Amino acid sequence: MIKSFRDLEVYQESYKLMILIHKKIKEFPIYEKMDLTSQMRRGSKSIPANIAEGWAKRNHEKEFKKHLNIAIGSANEMEVHIETARDLNYLNKDFAEDVLKRYNILGRKLFKLRQNWKSF
Which long-range contacts does 93-101 make (Cβ < 8 Å, 24+ apart)? Predict the structure, then answer.
């Protein structure tokens, strides 16, 4: 039974990815601190935060779905940032491919949750 946003699989995975990304981008060049790493920090944080905020408004289907849309957009954004970091050789290819796959699956699960959500 789902009692909290923390019980949602999409929240759990997005939170794990956020922590993973935050640890990994510490290794990026210092000159990326205000650019790519900043974007990746904000994008990765946006997903679990919007799931949590949307959950608080879950009785209002339109509001919950709005926050899920933002989370989907942030998951897509993270795919671009990860590809960029990979192609600039800040991330090794195996790590990047694994994280890209996880963000892609997360985005699809968020989309499915949005499509199937009904207020109760």
Answer: 95/24, 99/17, 99/20, 99/21
The model's pLDDT over 23-40, given as tens digits with 9 standing for 90+, comes to 999 999 999 988 999 999
Largest CA distance in the chain: 48
Q: How far is CA 18 from the centre of its chain?
A: 7
Please state which CATH number belongs to domain 27-116: 1.20.1440.60
Q: Could you tell me the CA-to-CA distances from 2 to 14, 15, 17, 45, 118 in Å, in that order?
A: 17, 17, 21, 22, 14
| φ, ψ at 57 (rounded to 5°) | -110, 20
Q: Per the structure block, which two tokens stand in for 26?
A: 């510490």
> Whole-structure pTM over 0.85, yes or no?
yes
Residue among 23, 41, 27, 33 nearest 78 (CA): 41
